[in-house]
Amino acid sequence: MKIYILGHISPDLDSIASAVEYAEYLKKTNRYKDAQLIPLAAETPNKETQFIFDKFGVELPKLIDDIEIEQTDSFILVDHNEEAQRSPKIPSGKIIEIIDHHKINITFEAPLRIDVKPLGSTSSLIYDHFETAGIKPTKEVQGLVISAILSDTQGLKSSTTTGYDSEIAHKIAKDADIDIEKLTFEIFRAKSDITGMTAFEIVTKDVKVYEMASHKVFIGVIETVEPQKVLEQKQALIEALSEVKPSKNVDMAYLFVVDILKSNSIGVFSTEEEGKILEKAFVGKAENGTIDIGPRTVRKKDIAPEIERAIKQAK
Fold it and tell me: Which residues fall within 8 angstroms of residue 221, CB to CB, at 6 or more apart?
């Protein structure tokens, strides 16, 4: 029997790192004695993820498209739970665990193991499992954990950062002799690299699709230290958002360009209706396809809930 562990589509660093981390945890605790525990990626890893895996000498997981799923195989979801964010290759009846740090929005016919905590990253939650079991992760996994925490919490400065996230990061940094400021800068630099990317690739680089009041809402985020380089392509980004809706089967599509140095975000949209939703959500002025939403930089906490509230009010 094989148990595959994988994160969401349009995977970020935490999504892919947590699959590798949790596979190691499950192997060391021997929870599934007779199973092969195999981390996977739902889609091709981004440049940031490739950089971190190379830096710490960890092999990237195979893509789910590259395996043959058998009747006896099972799945564990990490860093997501909603069906809209799940690989379509995963049969819902084969999911046996979920480990996540996002809002729950799921329905399953059979009971399963679910562990969700309001931490800055799924990697933080998995590290908590290691600590509770009295198991020390390998140096490689420690490198993935601290990197995923720094990535998801924007260098421990985002609104989702908890005391435990900071505690873990500093503990690993001391134990593994990692300079947090230097690693954070390297992560920010890798996040910001859009060299050779089309507007469509930028828009779909880091995406979550949400069910909001019977609407499917696509929210893309690009975190960068050079927001002007992204926004120079505004018209192409607007056109890409228009293309996204039929290609991803969604009703609304947004991109938020997050300046991770100044903690400020610019929303990009393609229709008047979408602009009005953002004006309701963030009490700003939407014009020419963009809106400045100020110091709201975290999709799951600062952005998605406000858009959902505005959509419900508009009904």
Answer: 206, 207, 255, 256, 258, 299, 303
